[in-house]
Amino acid sequence: MLPREQLSLTQVARTAPVQSPVDPRQQAFQRALSTMVGQSLQAEVLSKLPDGNFLVRVGDMAARMPLPAGAQPGAQVPMTLVALNPRPTFQVQTAQGGAAFAEAAAEEAPAHGAPLAYLQGKEAAALTRTATLLAGARTIAQMPGGAGGDGASLSAAGKTLGDIVAAAQKGETQASAATGRTPLLAAPGADAGRIANALQDGLAKSGLFYESHVAEWAAGTRTLGELAGEPQARGTPAPTDPATAQFINLQLNAHEQGRVAWQGQVWPGQDMRWEIERDAPEDGKQGKGGGDGDGDGATWQSRLLLRFGTLGEVAAKVVLAGDQLHIRLDAASPQAGAALDAQRARLAQMLEAAGMPLSTLAIHKAAAADGNDDGDSDGQA
Q1: Alpha carbons 143 and 156: distance in angstroms, whole number
Q2: Could you list the residue range(s) of the whole structural domain that residue 52 is in?
Q3: What is the DSSP letter of 289?
Q4: Is pLDDT at 69 greater than 70 in this prediction?
Q5: How far apart, in Å, are the Cα atoms of 303 and each of 162, 204, 237, 278?
Q6: pLDDT tens across 193-216, in order?
Q7: Is residue 242 part of a domain?
Q8: Exposed / middle / buried, residue 315 (Cβ in 10 Å: 0-12, 13-18, 19+)
Q9: Residue 249's pLDDT is what?
Q10: Is 157 helix (H, G, I), strand (E, B) or coil?
């Protein structure tokens, strides 16, 4: 199922117009590829053009596109079509074995159109995930007795995924965190247990885990009323709506990177941004703390950014490695840092009483306006 709530998030670059919308050559080129989204194709490099692009034959068509360094005329280049709009986009392999993405245009496309795009690294992350989904879908479709054995179902699914990626790129905002629409608590003053429960509930109902919750409902372990509290159950925007498409991308990021982020109000007037990340142990080793933790040695990191009336902006980083808890606080001023430092012993006592002894606490204070720095306060709690 796809998210159903439009979110307001941070800015991303606007997609430039590609060509004149009435260019018949480009329209014919895209129509010819419309049933090939998700398919692996063998392309032949025909020649290198003066502008640095290449003339490539894909099936029975010739197209202009940028290619990875080292491409030579006469070479065969395997590629996968992952999107049709705003221009046909192919996944190609680089000489280093990584994936890059190249936009293609009809052979006689007018020169006044926007330059063809060639994406690598972080810019290609969303398309990499989509290409992986398309490849998996095609494998299933080609299995004996598999759904879509005639290719029709695959083409529809592939086109939908390609359109979603294109929509995410067109959006003026980028989904960097799930956004809470209402405060988690009605007023300040709640105890730590109530705040923890509210945070857990807010993250669980953010929509990031909606599909897994639907699976739990189907298995009888979650009620329909619990699902109704998530944003996907409160509206039906098209999956190619830019904000919806970017939220889908946010879900893919959470699954791929083991990191989730939430922003909103803990109670009215108290804004917070909260990130949680799980670092899996390398080569089967335990986490930095050496303890058992959740049983697999993983390290959990939590980052919070809050703004207070008297302290100003305070950033906190909490690391749980095995059975060791490490906290770093960054204050916006020397005065705020001193106020936090004065409560060091109280914080340690409260954590000890909660059964989570504090291993280290570092408090970093911003420099004063006159350039003097009161210094940092580090050490065992």
Answers
A1: 18
A2: 10-173
A3: T
A4: yes
A5: 33, 17, 31, 12
A6: 899 999 999 999 998 888 888 888
A7: no
A8: middle
A9: 75
A10: helix
In a domain, 35, yes or no: yes
Nearest to 79 by CA among 51, 47, 45: 45
> Structurally, how many domains does the chain consist of?
1
Is residue 118 a part of any domain in this protein? yes
In terms of Cβ atoms closer than 10 Å to its own Cβ (0-12, 13-18, 19+), residue 341 is middle
Q: Tell me: pLDDT of 283 over 80.
A: no
From CA 325, how far away is CA 345, in angstroms rounded?
A: 15
Neighbours of 5 (CB within 10 A): 19
Nearby residues of 70 by Cβ (< 8 Å), 6 or more positions away: 95
Strand pairing of 358-365 and 324-331?
Answer: parallel
Quote the tokens at residue 353.
């009483």
User: Is residue 354 situated within a structural domain?
Assistant: no
d(CA 243, CA 178): 11
265 near 183, Cβ under 8 Å? yes
**In sequence order, which residues have a C-beta less than 8 Å from that of residue 47 and are 6 or more positions away?**
54, 55, 73
- Give the per-residue pLDDT at 285: 47
Tokens of 378: 């580090």
d(Cα 365, Cα 340) in Å, to the nearest integer? 10
DSSP secondary structure, 193-257, as one string: HHHHHHHHHHHHTSSTTHHHHHHHHHTTSS-HHHHTTSGGGS----TTSHHHHHHHHHHHHHHHH
More confident residue, 49 or 139: 49
What is the predicted pLDDT for the residue at 301?
93
Are the C-beta atoms of 69 and 76 separated by less than 8 Å? no
- Is the Cβ–Cβ distance between 256 and 16 less than 8 Å? no
Per-residue pLDDT reduced to its tens digit, 211-256:
888 888 878 888 888 888 888 777 766 666 777 777 877 887 787 7
Q: What is the Cα–Cα distance from 339 to 348, expressed in whole angstroms?
A: 15
In 3-state terms, the chain is what percent helix, strand and coil (to 5)?
30, 25, 40
In the structure encoding, which two tokens stand for residue 41, read together? 């194709």
Given a contact cutoff of 8 angstroms between Cβ atoms, the answer to whether 263 and 193 are in contact is no
Strands 10-11 and 61-65, by their bridges, are unpaired
Q: Distance of CA 168 to CAs 32, 124, 164, 307, Å?
A: 24, 12, 6, 31
Average pLDDT over residues 150-160: 53
Phi-psi region of 355 (alpha: psi -120 to 50; beta: other; left: phi over 0): left
